[in-house]
Specification:
Elements: H1 2-8, H2 11-39, H3 44-47, H4 58-87, H5 92-115, H6 122-142, H7 148-176
Helix pairs in contact: 2-4, 2-6, 4-7, 5-6, 5-7
Length: 182
């Protein structure tokens, strides 16, 4: 079955599929996040969270963060596609993003297992994010275009930036979100 996908999906296509996988996964989070947070706001990690304004529309706040991150991911994809076309290899920065999204999927599954309840993003993490990113990393590795050490270095370098961008998006969202109707 894997060889069927390998023949069907060109490596360049994997570059362009990353934003689709991101927006499918984060779409589930947008739809489910506010209800889940409000239901579980007594959990210590959520109760202590100062990123969300509980008096405002959390869905809007989260959507702003997703759009900011997704826009930057789309720009990175455009550059990565051009770079791939010129060099025939995925840019290591882009591969780092794929690996970080793989880790994000693992995080979602881990939270669900740890809390023993559904958490936002769990379904698409298992059905889209983890399978896609694992397959993309496998294909680039199998084609000898990436190595594990380089991926690790780029993940370590990019992760703080991505966490900052998530925080910045949530902070911006908190500032511009409308108040909830009583």
């Amino acid at each position: 079955m894997l060889s069927y996908f390998n023949e069907l999906i060109r490596l360049e296509v994997l570059v362009w599929l990353l934003p689709a996988a991101f927006f499918i996964h984060d779409g589930e989070e947008i739809i489910t996040m506010e209800k889940w947070l409000r239901k579980h706001k007594d959990l210590p990690r959520i109760a202590e969270n100062r990123v969300y304004n509980w008096e405002k529309n959390i869905t809007f706040q989260f959507t702003v963060a997703v759009l900011l991150l997704g826009s930057l991911l789309f720009l990175a994809t455009c550059f990565a596609a051009g770079d791939f076309e010129n060099s025939g290899k995925p840019h290591p920065l882009f591969v780092g993003i794929i690996a970080i999204l793989f880790l994000d999927g693992i995080k979602h599954v881990g939270y669900t297992v740890m809390l023993k309840t559904y958490t936002p993003g769990f379904i698409t993490a298992g059905l889209v994010e983890i399978p896609f990113t694992a397959y993309a990393l496998y294909r680039f590795y199998d084609a000898e275009m990436i190595d594990i050490v380089t991926v690790g270095i780029y993940v370590a370098a990019e992760l703080p930036l991505i966490l900052f961008l998530v925080w910045a998006g949530l902070t911006l969202g908190r500032r511009v979100a409308p108040y909830r109707k009583q």
